[in-house]
Amino acid sequence: MIPLFFPEILRKCKRGPQVVLPKDIGVILAYSGAGKNSLVIDAGAGSGWLAVALGNVAKKVISYEWREEFAELAEKNAKRAGVSESVEIKRKNVFDGIDETDADLVTLDLADSDKVVPHAHKALRKGGMVFGYLPHVEQAREFYEACEAAGFAEIHMVESIVRDYLVRTAGVRPENTGLTHTAYIVFAVKK
User: How far is CA 57 from CA 46, 47, 54, 71, 156, in A?
Assistant: First the structure.
């Protein structure tokens, strides 16, 4: 199997808990339209890779993490990547609520994230988006239904599959192995 490709900003980061990979970060960035004026709330900081990638393009990222060892790692990764000015790791359990309002984007990458959808709805500005990063299809369905119940519109679920290719003189073909499924990504817009 060929090694995964990581952009320079993520190669500077250490891994702890599971990370959001570049192929999925690309979908989140492209579909959300996060940019230089965006306020982003991220929950389930973990290793902080998604917060780092978002902090590289957004004005401010506030990433909720209740586990101290993960919060420390995420802070160190933001510093290593050079985005600590735009990334704040908030030591708080997001299930207790989101303090910020008028956010442009809320990303939820944690178990039972469907239970946080109502908090995300309150935190978002009209037209803002919520993203759920969900490894199992049952979790994705629950998240989707929670978005419906909370009053979100334009609810959509995607899966990003990247296929690596073997390029050689004898011929070009898909690699026999590779990383395809990482998570289902559900996104919705606040009406």
Answer: 19, 18, 6, 21, 23
- If 0-12 CB within 10 Å is exposed, 13-18 middle and 19+ buried, where does residue 124 land? buried
Q: Which residue has the tokens 């996060």?
A: 34
Q: Are 184 and 7 in contact (CB under 8 A)?
A: no
What are the structural domain ranges in the chain?
16-190
| Mean pLDDT over each residue of the chain, to the nearest integer | 94
pLDDT tens digits for range 9-49: 888 888 888 889 899 999 999 999 999 999 999 999 999 99
**Helix, strand or coil, per DSSP, at residue 43:** strand
pLDDT tens digits, 119-151 = 999 999 999 999 999 999 999 999 999 999 999
Q: Within 7-60, where are the H helices?
A: 8-11, 22-32, 49-55
Which residues make Cβ contacts (< 8 Å) with residue 141, sequence separation at least 6?
A: none
CATH architecture group of domain 16-190: 3-Layer(aba) Sandwich (3.40)
Task: Determine the Cα–Cα distance for residues 92 and 13; give it in Å rounded to an integer.
Answer: 22
Decide: 63 and 45 in contact? Cβ < 8 Å: yes
